[in-house]
Task: structure prediction
Amino acid sequence: MKNITPLKVLSVLMLILLTACGSEQANEPEPVAQPAPVIIPTPAPAPTPIPPSSNITVTDPAARGVYGVGTTTTVIRIHTSNEGVKIDLQVTIWYPTSKDTGAPADTGKFPLIIFSHGASSAPNASSFLTEHLASHGFVVAAAQHPKAEQDKRGEAFSNRPAEVYAVVDYVIAQASTDGALLEGLIDDDRLGITGHSFGGLTTIALLGRADNRFKAGMPMAPGIRPFDEADVSDSITKVTVPIMFMMSGKDTLALYSNLSAAYATIPSSTQKYSLIFPNGTHLSYSNTCSSMCPPANTITQEAGHQLINTIGTAFFQVYLYERYDYEYYLYPNDDLANGEARVVKGDIP
Result:
């Protein structure tokens, strides 16, 4: 009888085990493909507005700013769009001053914002806003546009861009003139524009032009009905710079239905915002409201002005100064000031 060594025994046992394992695997049923699990996405939480950073000084845009406000008025002669015709424009300028001395502030250069008034209004029609902006470090200039008579609005509107740019050029030139009141005060790379009613149309028309020079604009209740009377329906579709579009639910001249439809045609790629006053009127953006603001069921001038100042100042701080902490005040809000206003970013829901 042959000797059986331990090594041979171990080899035989391993062969038996492997054969058994192979037999079990051969008898196992084929795996059945399982359907992929259905994953229901969890809605992203609503973004929370970020308070101003602790390392950047943010002045409350609702309150008066850190500067005093100086005002000066002058007259400039310009060419209109009608060849060979010259007109005189009275220009009012609000500028930041030292609260101690009353002299123009010497803390650096400031952005320039143009204000364009309504069809039959005046440069100081919204001085609650122009003065407020100046106190926050903006130079604001406004021309006395020629009165836009009902039957000559087309001609008046065609002249407005030239009038606005003439004011821009004058103020910038003064900032470069030795000994001028505004010497060294203007940063001509940071230009903004705002306007009310017919001036709101002017704002939109300029923002949509190929030769637009403004980095941001804020039309307030733009237009006289219908919206396209001044032929800006094409311009608004070409606005590419940030825009804050203000409108009122009880405006009987610049109808909310017209303005909200026009706002929707601003490209979605544009940084666009809207401040909406459900109970505002056409003159909520002016110093006084007269008979167009019945006492019942409309926002008060004081409440409207405070919100316009807050949102307008924050908007220009972000897009002219690039102080992005002020975006906190532009965060979408459907219940601003206890329902007095809504702030919308992007399309109106």
Summary: The beta strands are 68-79, 86-97, 110-116, 139-143, 186-196, 216-220, 243-248, 272-277, 333-336, 341-345. The longest helix spans residues 153-175. Residues 6-55 have pLDDT under 50 and may be disordered. DSSP finds six helices and ten strands in the chain.
